Amino acid sequence: MSGAYLIIDIGTGNSRVVLTSWEGHILDIHTFENNYYRDYLYDDGQYFLPWEWSNRIFSYIKKLIASNPRVAIKAITSTSARESIVLLDKEGSAFYGLPNVDNRGVKWLDDVENHDEIYRKTGRWVNSAFSASKLMGLKKFHMDIYERIVSITSLSEWIGYLFTSLLCIEPSQACETQLFDIETYTWSKDLCKAFGVDSRFLPGIQVAATKMGNVKEEICMDLGLMEDVPFITGGADTQLAVKGIHAGAEDIVIVSGTTSPIVTISKDRFYDPKQRCWIDCYIDGHSYQIETNAGVTGLNYQRIKKLFFPDEDYAFIDEKIREKTRPKCIASFGTLVFSENRSLYHGGFYMGTPLDENLDRFDFAYAIIADIACSIYQQYKSLCDMVPFRKDYILGCGGGFQSTMLCQMIADLTGKTLVIRKGFEQSSVLGCVKICNDYFKIPSAQNPEQFIYKSNRNACLEQYYVQWRTVRDLIN
Fold first, then answer.
1. Beta-carbon contacts of residue 1 (< 8 Å; ≥ 6 apart)
2. pTM of the model
3. Strand, helix or coil at 390?
């Protein structure tokens, strides 16, 4: 009988329950879609029902365990998308969820005072993505829901609460509320006052790779687990993805997923007076993650693939677009100019007239992938302007790097070697494996297998980048 870790990974669009070995080998996995509801009292309000999600999570866990009867689970942990919270009432019931895609507080951001001081304390500008704004907006039209709140926590720690009945939040998630002082690693009453949020809602802080508690006896019996299985505190998916690929000091990592964070880790608190970046708490509980972000990018490629290539895989698309020698259309579908704190509300394909008779669906795919690469490159340059970068390589992880064409484009634009380490598609899961190993004091060996993309001269991409900058400014 072999030992394994059970990992619950809650994403934005989809979630996964995963069985892994301590070495990081995925033994089994089940994926399912997340359900959201519109709140039409707001221009952009969305919510989820936690009990619906928990029922689905446990049903898939049971299937996973039933399919692997000889695998003994040694520990359970969780990770999740950032900027999502669950609301709990006095009975301890999780009764309402505010996801990262909810922007119900956007209309009232200008009512918040001292934006510069908030950026200094939190490492992020006032924005509707963060929990403080969501709670502020909730009060405007749903005081009945707001008054029912006794506690809040992140998605990843809510999973821990389901297993242990113990409530906490991990620092890489706490900083996403914009109520957490990243200098002191503590909640801030001043920030709560600025957003009008009751500080009594805020749970205790617990660092990743520590035991939240043992899994409850009734859950162990229901799932057929051994007694005294520990639930290990996880955290934010981006930070765990960085940990999962063994990123070191002064590395730059591109995490290509629904959005594309470009990050580096610093042991010292960083502050940018021009406010061009976010400063996140890192997963170790004392360091910092400096972040720029190209916004929604990978989701665009998923949608164009579904539209134009429902029956082809990424390798086939890459093979065809590699033959392109000149750009026939330009795409602009990214959502952010992060370093300017500016959202992009308009996008599209831009082509010359008349319509090129040789234009085909692969030209649109090329344009989408090049748009992602250019958006990432722009924010990579911004990060390098803030934090001098001397290494001759950059690291990449996330499902977006399944496209070898995207990998090569990023190497060509940055002039750096791009290193993609094995397991890059499940890097946040690998980060969860490593925090479980940290808890058990098991060394996590780095897999020596990696994919290397050397920088080359790419005249077609260079031409595209010049046109892309012009088109995006014109559209917006």
1. 70, 71, 72
2. 0.92
3. coil
Kindly report the backbone phi and psi dihedral angles of residue 206, in degrees, each rounded to the nearest multiple of 5, phi listed first. -140, 130
**Which helix (H) or strand (E) covers residue 337, if one does?**
strand 336-337
Instruction: Give the Cα separation of 211 and 401 in Å (integer).
Output: 33
**How many Cα neighbours within 13 Å face the side chain of 174?**
31
Which domains does the chain carry?
2-238 (3.30.420.40), 295-419+454-475 (3.30.420.40)
Kindly provide the b/e burial profile for residues 165-184, where b requires at least 16 CB atoms within 10 angstroms of the residue's own CB. ebbbbbbbbbbbbbbbbbee
How far, in Å, CA of 424 to CA of 397, rounded? 5
Residue 402: partners with Cβ closer than 8 Å, 6 or more residues away: 314, 425
**Do 259 and 239 touch, CB atoms closer than 8 A?**
no
CA dist 86 and 426 (Å) reads 25
| DSSP state for residue 131 in the 8-state scheme | H
Instruction: Band the pLDDT of 2: cuts 50, 70, 90.
Output: low
pLDDT at 200 over 60: yes
Interatomic CA distance for residues 133 and 45, integer angstroms = 12
What average pLDDT score do residues 247-267 get? 91
